[in-house]
Amino acid sequence: MRRQSFLPTLNEHEYLLLPESVGWYKDPEHEVMRKAGALNNFSIHLIVDGKGYLETDGQQRTLHRGDAFLYFPLQSQRYYSSKDDPWEVRWVHFYGKTLKEFLLERGIGPKPLWKIPQWKPLEQALADLLEELEQNGFWQLTRISTLTYAILAEFVTQAVPWSEARSPEADNRISELLPEMQRDACLPFDLQHWADRAGVSSYYFCRLFKKATHLTPMTFITLCRLQNSKQWLLEQPQLTVKEIAERAGYPSVSYYNKRFLEQEGMTPTEYRQLYLRR
C-alpha cells in the first residue's frame, strides 16, 4: 500500500523550504539503500505503526511507532521494513538553502535517529501536505511551503535524540496527566502529588515533563493559569483584577500582575482595556 506525490525542484525560490516529495507506505518488502552523495535533499520519516530497521554507524537499530529518522543532504541511507510486522511510514523530502543552519541552530544535527514523544501532530502535518498536493498540485507554493514548515516545526519542537529516548510508558505517564493538570491548574500546585500520580520521584517527574513538553511543570501551570485569566478578563468584566487573580491561583494580585506582564507585555488591566474597546 502506498500513496505519494512528487514535485519539480525549484532551483530559485523565495521560501525557507519546499517539498520535493511526500508520501505514505506500508510494505513488508520496502527497502532503501543509497550511497553517500546520492540524494541532495533533507528527509523526515515517521513510523506510525509496525516495525522496521535502520542501519547507522555499523549497527542495526529497530524502530517502532513514534520513532523517526531525519537525513541531511548527501548522507548514506539504509533502512527497511520488518517482514513479519511491516512498518507504516509517513515521509517527506524537502530542500532549502538555509535549512542546514536552521536545524543546527535548534540542536538538530545529522545523526539520523530521533524519538517523537507526541507524534500524532507530526503525522497529521504530513497527511495535510500529502492531501494538499494530491488535490491541488504544486501551484500554490506559499501554502505548500507553509504546510512543509508545519512538518518541520513539529519535528524540531518534539524530537528527542534516540539515544536519550525513554520508554513509551514514561511518555504516556506525562501525556495522560496533562489534561488533568490543565484542568486543575488554578488550584494550589503540588509537585509531589503529580509525581506520585506518575509513579516516579519529583526529580524524575520534572525530567520526564521537560522532555515531553519542553516546559517545566511550573511553567506549564503558569501558562494554563494565564490562559484562564485572559478568558475571564474579557468574558467576565464584572470581576475585578484581584478576583480574577485569586480565581487563577494567585492570592497576591501584585504577583499575578508581575507574571502577566512578563508573559504578555502588558498588565491585566491594560489587556482588558485594549480588547474590550473593540
Automatic annotation (TrEMBL):
It holds the Pfam family HTH_18. One of its GO terms (molecular function) is sequence-specific DNA binding. It comes from the Bacteria. CDD domains: cupin_MmsR-like_N. Residues 172-274 form the HTH araC/xylS-type domain. Keywords: DNA-binding, Transcription, Transcription regulation. SUPFAM superfamilies: Homeodomain-like, Regulatory protein AraC. This is AraC family transcriptional regulator. It comes from Paenibacillus elgii. The lineage of its organism: Bacteria, Bacillati, Bacillota, Bacilli, Bacillales.
